[in-house]
Design a protein that fits this description.
The structure is a homodimer.
Chain A (H helix, E strand, L loop, with lengths): L16 H8 L3 H8 L7 H13 L6 H8 L4 E8 L10 H15 L4 E8 L6 H5 L4 E5 L6 H8 L5 E4 L9 E5 L1 H15 L4 E5 L7 H15 L7 E4 L4 H14 L5 E4 L2 H14 L8 E6 L12 E4 L2 H16 L9 E4 L2 E3 L21 H5 L2
Parallel strand pairs in A: 1-2, 1-3, 3-4, 4-5, 5-11, 6-7, 6-8, 8-9, 9-10
Antiparallel strand pairs in A: 10-12
The first copy, chain A, binds a DNA duplex through helix 2 and helix 4.
Chain lengths: ~375, ~375
DNA sequence: TTGTAAGCGTTATCAA
DNA sequence: TTGATAACGCTTACAA
C-alpha cells in the first residue's frame, strides 16, 4: 500500500480538528463544540475557531464522526435487480425519482448511496457496514428473498416505494395504481370502447402491474355489458411494446384500445402500430401510465395516467427525514399518491360500425366502404 | 439523542470483530487477517473464524475500516447543476451512464455516492470528508468555479466526463462529439441539403455542444457551395425542442434539415413539426445525437449519432478502478469514444425544387402546384 | 502462526 | 466556559 507522499517524503496528512485546536490554543472538545454549534463556548473563542477553520481549509472527517456517532448521514437507495438489469438502465423513471429524493435529503445534509442488489440476495451488507441512516427500496416484491431480509430490519427506517407488501408491516410510498388504471379504463369505456387489451410487464402477485390489472378489471366489471378482460403480459420496455403491437394485430384484431401499464410500453406500441399502418387513435386508442416527460412529446402525444415521479422522490425524502429524526409513528406509514388522467391525442372513440377497420390488414378493404 | 434500546434497556450493539475474536478465542488481529485473506493464519483457525462470522451474522464495519485505511471504497458521482436543476431530471442520459458505472465498480466492491453540486461551488467537501477513493464529474465547463476546484485535487483520481477542459491537465472521457456532428452534417449534405440548422443547448465555450458546433461547421465548410451555418441556441429539453420547431418555421422557413445536439431536443422538434403540419422527413429532415433508447421508437424513428452511453459509464468505471489501483499513468488519460451514424426515418433528401413546400404555411398553396 | 498495543479523527462524559 | 480522557471498530507495526 503506497502512502501518498509529498516531495519531502513526509506523509501527506489532512488538517484535523486537533490541528485547529492546537493552532487556536483550545481543546479539541471546544473546537468540536463550536463546529456543532453547541453554544457553550464564548463568542471570542468561536470566532477564532471559525477563522482557523477557514484559514486552514479544514473539512471535518465525516468518517470519524460516523464511527463515533453511528450516524452516517447517508441514505441508501436500493434497486432490486434480476440478473441482467432488465428495465433498469432504460427506465427514465428511476432517474426522475432519485433526483427528487437526492434534492430533498441533500437540503438536510444527507447523501445518497446507490446500490443495485440481486433480488435473491439474503442480506444487504451495505446497510450495517456503512451505518446507513435510512434506506429506500424501489420496486420490491414479497416473493424476493431480498425483500424479506430488508423488512426485518428494525434498527433504521426503511421505505418501500412502488411495492405492495400486504403481509409486511413496513413503510410504503406508492401511487394509487389500482385507481389510476381504473381511471384509464373507465375513460376508454366512456368513449365507447368495449374490446380493451391490458398490456403489462410481468404480473407478479402484489406487483405494481398487478394492482393496475385489478383497476382495469374493476372498471370493466362495472360496465354493464359483458366486457371480457384481455391480458397481454410482456416486459416493461420500448421494444417489448413494439413487438406486442405487432402480435396484437394478429391475436386480437378486433381490439379498439390498449391500456398499457407504463408509458415506455405505450410508446413502444405507438411505434409498433405505426410500423403496421394501424392509425392511432383512429383505429386503436392507447393509454399509458406514468406521464414521463416524453409522453407529451410523442406523435401522437400520449393519453396517460399522470403521476408526479420527482414529487414521489421528494415525498419519500421528506418521510425519510422525518423517520430518521425519530418523529416517525410507532407503526408503519403508508402514503398513496393520487394519479390523474391526462387526455392527449392517442385516445378517441372507437371506429363506428360503418367505418370500422379491423387492425388486421386482410379484410381492410372490405371495411373501408362507407 | 435517543439511543436505540432493546426491551431490557441495554444499548443495542452490533457484533464487532472483537466479539468474533473473543468467541473463537483468538486475537482481533487474527480475525482481521482471516477476513482480509492475508493468509498468515492456520487453516484451522480460519475455518473457525469463518464459522463464527456466519453464526453471528458479523458484518465488518466499513466506516471504521475507512477511518483506519483512508480508503472508503466509495466513488463520488458529481453532477454540476445550475440553480434549479435544468436538464438534470429529464435527461435519460444520466441514468444509463450512472447505471453502467455503478455496475462496473460494484464488481470491484465499490459503491456510488451521488451528489449534485452547484456549478458555482468553491469546494466539494464530500470528497475529503468522506474519504472518497475516486470522483467522476459529468458535464463540466472550464468556466465553472467548481471545475477549477476539482481540477486542483491531486490526492485521488478524478475523471471528467463529457467535459472539454483544454487548459487543464485532467483525466477525461468523452465521445468524439465534433466527429459525430460532422458525420451527421455530412450525411445531410450528401442527401443534398444545403440549408441546415444547428439546434443546440447553451453553447458554452469548450462545451459538448460547442464541439458539436465545430463538427457541423467543418462539414459545411468542406462543401464547395457556400453553405452558411445557422445556429439556434436553446435549452436541452423536449419542450425547448418543440418550441424551437415552431420558431424555426417562421425564422428559417427555407430550412430543409435540422442537426440537433441531443435526441431529447430532436424528439421535441419532431413533435413541434408535427403540431405545425410539417412532415418529417418529407419537408424537413431531423438528425439527433446520443441514440437514447427511445430514438428508435419515435414516429418517425430518429436518424441520430449513436453513442454507447452505458458503455461510457463502464469505460469510466474501468478507468477509475485502474487509477485507484495506482496503475494510472503519471499524466492524465484521455479516452474519446467513437460515435457513429444510425440512419432511420427522420432524414431524406430535401424536397426538390418542383415539389418544394416551404415550412411556413403562408405561401404553401403556391408551392404545392406541380 | 498468533498476539499486543497504538492510532485513525471525531464526540461523549465527566470534571474543573 | 473549557478541558482531559476514553471510547467508536478497525488495521498494522512490531513482538513473540
Amino acid at each position: 500500500m503506497k502512502a501518498k507522499q509529498t516531495i519531502t517524503g513526509r506523509i501527506k496528512r489532512s488538517v484535523t480538528l486537533r490541528d485547529i485546536a492546537r493552532q487556536v490554543g483550545v481543546s479539541p472538545t471546544t473546537v468540536s463544540n463550536v463546529l456543532n454549534g453547541r453554544g457553550r463556548v464564548s463568542e471570542q473563542t468561536a470566532r477564532r475557531v471559525h477563522q482557523a477553520v477557514v484559514e486552514n481549509r479544514f473539512i471535518i472527517n465525516a468518517t470519524a464522526r460516523t464511527l463515533r456517532q453511528k450516524q452516517s448521514k447517508i441514505v441508501g437507495v436500493i434497486i432490486p435487480i434480476m440478473e441482467h438489469l432488465i428495465s433498469f438502465h432504460d427506465n427514465p423513471f428511476y432517474w426522475a425519482f432519485v433526483s427528487g429524493l437526492q434534492q430533498t435529503i441533500a437540503s438536510a445534509g444527507f447523501h445518497v448511496m446507490l446500490d443495485a442488489v440481486e433480488y435473491s440476495s439474503e442480506s444487504v451488507e451495505i446497510i450495517r457496514s456503512r451505518n446507513l441512516d435510512g434506506v429506500v427500496v424501489v420496486g420490491s416484491h414479497e416473493s424476493f428473498p431480498l425483500t424479506q431480509q430488508l423488512a426485518q430490519i428494525d434498527t433504521l427506517p426503511i421505505i418501500f416505494v412502488d411495492s405492495y407488501l400486504p403481509t409486511m408491516n413496513v413503510n410504503t410510498v406508492t401511487t394509487d395504481d389500482r385507481f389510476g388504471s381504473y381511471l384509464a379504463t373507465r375513460y376508454l369505456l366512456g368513449l365507447g370502447h368495449r374490446k380493451i387489451v391490458f398490456l403489462s410487464g410481468p404480473l407478479y402477485e402484489h406487483g405494481v402491474d398487478h394492482e393496475r390489472w385489478l383497476g382495469y378489471v374493476r372498471a370493466l366489471s362495472e360496465q354493464d355489458t359483458a366486457c371480457r378482460p384481455i391480458a397481454v403480459e410482456t416486459q416493461m420496455s420500448l421494444e417489448s411494446g413494439r413487438l406486442a403491437a405487432h402480435r396484437l394485430i394478429y391475436e386480437h384484431p378486433d381490439v379498439t384500445a390498449v391500456v398499457a401499464t407504463g408509458d415506455v410500453l405505450a410508446i413502444g406500441v405507438l411505434r409498433g402500430f405505426f410500423e403496421s399502418g394501424v392509425r392511432v387513435p383512429h383505429q386503436c386508442s392507447i393509454i399509458g401510465f406514468d406521464d414521463v416527460s416524453i409522453a407529451s412529446h410523442t406523435v401522437p402525444s400520449l393519453t396517460t395516467i399522470h403521476q408526479d415521479i420527482k414529487g414521489k422522490g421528494e415525498a419519500v425524502g421528506r418521510m425519510l427525514l422525518r423517520l430518521i429524526a425519530g418523529q416517525g409513528p410507532p407503526q408503519s406509514e403508508h402514503i398513496s399518491l393520487n394519479p390523474h388522467l391526462v387526455v392527449r391525442e392517442s385516445t378517441a372513440p372507437p371506429p363506428t360500425v360503418l367505418n370500422r377497420l379491423p387492425l388486421k390488414g386482410g379484410d381492410g378493404l372490405q371495411s373501408k366502404r362507407q
